[in-house]
Amino acid sequence: MPQTKASVAVTGTGVRSRPRAVLPALCVTQITSWGVLYYAFPVLNPTITKNTGWPAGATTAAFSAALIVSAIVGIHVGRVLDHRGPHAVMTAGSILGPLSLLVVAAAPNLAVFTAGWLLAGASMAATFYQPAFAALTRWWAPDHVRALTIVTLAGGLASTVFAPLTAVLADHMSWRATYVVLAGILAALTVPAHALALKAPWPPAPPSPSHVAGGHERVVRSRAFWMLAVTFTLSAFAMYAVVIGLVPLFLERGYTTTQAAWALGLGGAGQTLGRTLYATLARHLGVTARTISLIALGALTTAALSTVAGPYAVLVAVSILAGVIRGNLTLLQATAVTDRWGTTHYGRLSGLLGAPSHAAAALAPVAGAVLAGPLGGYPALFALLAGLSIAAAITALGARTKQLEGTPHLQPR
Q1: What is the dihedral of CA 319, 320, 324, 325, to 10 degrees?
Q2: I want to staple 116 with a disulfide (CB 3.0 to 4.6 A). Which of 89, 103, 153, 398 is the partner?
């Protein structure tokens, strides 16, 4: 593990201490945390329901409950991050994650299975992007977009690495044994990384921008904040329903689980590609134009997945393109607070802004599974999700902030 001794970097606003180990550590832990706690589930769920006899809607609801817990806990996590930094929060979360998966693996019934996922939700809140973004935004500002891009580039590989790995493990052992192996990988890679790399002193919060008067309370009450929350909520519901629904969409069209897992994994590679393009996009488009454009493009890729039945290579190409858009949307949300209201209350504002979208992401998997039947299958579901994305692009018009409208993001420097 790299040393945690801070290096000194000169930025546009002065000298700021940046712990050398943080960036590589968070790259590793985001790949592993997302890969094990999130992307393994859609690969394993068909096997879980087949072997246990539990309804697919019930197992998906347990996973969705984890995401709801993550959204709720994330609000408190944001407050802690602003004041104390990420060390204790992310270390505790990386310990809880493997323990929760061991509960899931050993579950004798659906109730215990659900309880394990509820614990996993608390781990997600403490280890996924929100705390990592808060750490990088405070330590790397004003050049934080570069650091965010690097970490999300790595995080985009989570499905690329862990969806196929999970499928291979499941081909050679039970789903329970697979989760035990994945829990061991999660513990081995994330606990020491968070415990050792995030020990550096937490710098004081910078002052609020001049146009942000009245503190975070006034921001939270503003029309722009709530319209942005609506936009991200609709977009998140559509995006995560697509991610979780991609495997059953492929299965419904006659492809194998392994083929579906590779399509999901290559979509993760698309996310990585997309994130390399975000800085250029941010330099040329203002905040609102960027938001509308990316969400509208997401609607187009979802519509394509709905209407294109094959061949397999074409579906994979569309999945990769959808991943490119998802990758940009992740950075769009990561920079939404700083683009509009600065970094002073980043943890608190991002926690509040993200809570409804995280809840929507939590409901999306079970809602998608429930709606697919009455709608006539996953192609029709994807058509509905494309419509929701279009609605999200429209509501983004109401999230304008006068001070920043039309001003492209000038980072990274």
Answers
A1: -10
A2: 103
Give the pLDDT confidence of 45-61 residue by residue, as tens digits.
Answer: 999 999 999 998 899 88
Residue for token digits 């197992």?
59
Cα 165–chain centre separation? 20
Find the helix or strand (DSSP H, E) in which 9 lies: strand 6-11
Kindly report the backbone phi and psi dihedral angles of residue 149, in degrees, each rounded to the nearest multiple of 5, phi listed first: -65, -45
Choose between 58 and 102: higher pLDDT. Answer: 102
Centroid of chain to Cα 158: 11
Q: CA 260, CA 81: separation in Å to the nearest integer? A: 37
Closest CA to 60 of 307, 363, 321, 347: 363
Let me know: does 113 contact 62? Beta carbons within 8 Å. yes
Confidence of residue 99 (pLDDT cuts 50, 70, 90): very high
Whether the bond between 192 and the residue before it is cis, its omega within 30 degrees of 0, is no
Contacts of residue 171, defined as CB under 8 A and 6 or more positions apart, other chains included, come to 258
Give the residue carrying structure tokens 């941010």: 282
Characterise 408 by phi-psi region: left (phi > 0), alpha (psi -120 to 50), beta (else).
beta
Distance CA(335)–CA(409), nearest Å, equals 9
Please, what is the end-to-end C-alpha distance for the chain in angstroms?
28
- Predicted model pTM: 0.74
